[in-house]
Amino acid sequence: xxxxxxxxxxxxxxxxxxxxxxxxxxxxxxxxxxxxxxxxxxxxxxxxxxxxxxxxxxxxxxxxxxxxxxxxxxxxxxxxxxxxxxxxxxxxxxxxxxxxxxxxxxxxxxxxxxxxxxxxxxxxxxxxxxxxxxxxxxxxxxxxxxxxxxxxxxxxxxxxxxxxxxxxxxxxxxxxxxxxxxxxxxxxxxxxxxxxxxxxxxxxxxxxxxxxxxxxxxxxxxxxxxxxxxxxxxxxxxxxxxxxxxxxxxxxxxxxxxxxxxxxxxxxxxxxxxxxxxxxxxxxxxxxxxxxxxxxxxxxxxxxxxxxxxxxxxxxxxxxxxxxxxxxxxxxxxxxxxxxxxxxxxxxxxxxxxxxxxxxxxxxxxxxxxxxxxxxxxxxxxxxxxxxxxxxxxxxxxxxxxxxxxxxxxxxxxxxxxxxxxxxxxxxxxxxxxxxxxxxxxxxxxxxxxxxxxxxxxxxxxxxxxxxxxxxxxxxxxxxxxxxxxxxxxxxxxxxxxxxxxxxxxxxxxxxxxxxx
Length: 517
Prior knowledge:
Rossmann fold, alpha/beta, five-stranded parallel beta sheet, nine-stranded mixed beta sheet, globular, 15 helices, 27 strands, 3 domains, GMP Synthetase, Chain A, domain 3
């Protein structure tokens, strides 16, 4: 028969016996033990089965971070259903596109989904299920559905290589693509992360990243898999003081955040921060964007003795590299080296040949966390691979010690007067100005140079700077042709970002001149 890795649904049943009375999930007003969680997941799985949903069927959801979305992931894992989590921040047209493209047969959503007005445009979807006390007309109630279902373990013929999750990319370079991921790819991550990050059953994870994103389906469910506890915080808001309070109250040991989150936590006055007991934190992860030296130093000062990790990966590739705590200051700006159990990364030029040492090349990787394919896009799938190695379109270089550094996305590269400029280089320079909170650099049309460089800048509260001052600040820190020609100042809320905080350069190009990529 061969080996059979237990998927997250199967492990949930095992953990219900091993850790029956231990808290598995908690949110502000509710908590479930592993025993209670397994019974509710069984009810949901059997309820979905009674609606005619089974192995291979796609079920979409528009849910904030909540106990219900976790239950749906687990119910899908027990039945072979493919869960399609949709970002709850998307506009009606974007949601409708994904629902149609995914081929969903049912939708589970919070009550506000009804206000999007897309239900009538989806004749192929038979069942709409609402989470909340007052289901809108035409929706089944989530709790009513569970109350009438059996608690017995559902029966399903599952293979670890079966698809489990259909995640849509954030669309940084075009229309979102559906990424099909197997149970096996997630199992690999859970076990590898236990080795590379040192997670175990005594951990308590605080999840604030949206559970419609790969970061959370990796890191949050690692703890569910290992029999550890998971505290779920809504992703719609991020209140730094509330985060400090949760850490103190729940004795949190691990959080995965993006640089924006850490910067917001650092805006809390030091006197107020010192009122919280945060010594339970053992490990922190920073991902999705580069972390500056000043921020790293401040975070490690804020959480005394913490182990800070940085990770690079993608929805398709999973986690590719990790920069570990002891490497943080000696390898600044690096994304680290290959994670345990991942094949070697390689950097290739346009001709497919390895690039010389220190030169920028397109980053390719392969390993057990790779996705299966892009949903309904065989040509896109083929274009993303080269001899079995996958590329998310990022450019990187490797130093003499084998550490990798992201240069930028291939699609963000600016060509000005025949010279290639990667925005991240100039963004890093601008971030060193004391008045700059965040910055994005794009290419805009230029009759002489083809493209000229524009900086879009968010200033720190209470600080000021002029266009001329910031352009002059770049002098001597980057080649003259890399300096911004113009600077536009915007508010933080105006910066277009993905749900995980990555700046959408494509949206900025569209707004400020739509320069060719």
